[in-house]
Amino acid sequence: MSLASRVTNGNDSTHQIAVKGWTSSKLSSNKDQGLESLLVFLEKKAGRPLLQHRRAGQTVLIITVNSHDKDRFYHLNGFTFAGATLVLEEARPPGNRSHNQNSSDGRYPHQSHNNHSSQPQSSPFSSQQPPRGPRAQQHHRQNDSATSEAENLIISIIRARYNAADKHLVLNALAADPLITGSELVNSPPDKVWKSIFAMCERSVWETPSKRRESVTSVSLRDDHITSVKEILNLSSVFPTIQNLDLAGNQIPSLEEMRFWKNQFRELEHLILTGNPVAADPNTLPTLLKWYPKLKMYNGEPVAQVAQVPAGPAVTPFANPSPIPQQPEPTASHPEFPPGSTFGLPQEGKSMEQLQREQMGLQFSFETRLKMQWVENCLTANNWDYAAAIRNFQDLRTANQIPPEAYITGV
């Protein structure tokens, strides 16, 4: 097992879920029955990474997730995927079958009296039994030691590449990093290494969304041999509010390989794709402007200048643009708030996280006509990912699962 796998796939911290119903989707005629699209769907809707997946028969997909993320995936039970209703339930290990299957009278089968009767029975799903007693304790200590070693190594890489003054996480040319080339990580698949890095960012370096928002506003992944943002998909869930993203010098061929980040990074103001084939496509910038409404800089230049429209003086890459002025009273036309409400406005003692959530909630309510209580429920269930919450709302509305009392008039 690779070092990266030990970070994310430890038995004590993972959970397996069975996903059913997906093979009846509109994508079932595809070569993979829509499996690849389903995996992307699950990760985006849950806002959490999938660690592993495997098929169990023709119709069941078994996914492995971090234990602390399992509720995010169970929340997707009943969601619609390409026209099919998904069923997510706890996966039952093959070894948990009842002993009644081995005995016609419902009792445990009698032990054989031959010379092998004292030997433990081998499971058909493994080549040997796990160690027991003192051997088991030693086995667990070895696994814990390996996991701790892997986690500490990745945390060291993150901290060594973080510029606190600029709030900039610099992960450029990671494959050439001496800490990686001198470890088992060099033999790990790149996507697993990235998953491990972002998992450690989330769990051990900046443990809360507010810490990540305040500590990291820029991320650079130059010259990392990235061919699709799917390889670094978790970046959008761990750092959804970054303002600057540098992907220069990679090998992203087209917008098709960037679609997994469509409508993510709602605060993104500067994106660098220089050196990627996708940057040569004239449709790239117009599409990015639709995906990222706050985008102001592209490849180091103002977007208006790139589009050959007269613009002001050039802005230094990763400069902080002037803040967008707020409305005097965002709740003025919302019937649930009294005149003079400060909801959605900056105030002394109000954290930036709370302010952003209030503004996001108002926008969501105006767009969906949902009451604020239902808005908060929907955004919370989707980890405050606005695009995911909108899709969740649309799915529930299509399925007629939103009661009339959830809506308000006058919005």
Automatic annotation (TrEMBL):
Q: Does the keyword Amino-acid biosynthesis apply?
A: no
Q: Which CDD domains match?
A: UBA_TAP-C (cd14342)
The protein, known as: mRNA export factor MEX67
Q: Which stretches does the entry tag as region Disordered? A: 92-149, 317-347
Locations listed in the record: Nucleus
Question: By its UniProt entry, which PANTHER family does this protein fall under?
Answer: NUCLEAR RNA EXPORT FACTOR (PTHR10662), NUCLEAR RNA EXPORT FACTOR 1 (PTHR10662:SF22)
Q: Describe the family membership recorded for this protein in Swiss-Prot or TrEMBL.
A: Belongs to the NXF family.
What organism is recorded for this protein? Exophiala mesophila (Black yeast-like fungus)
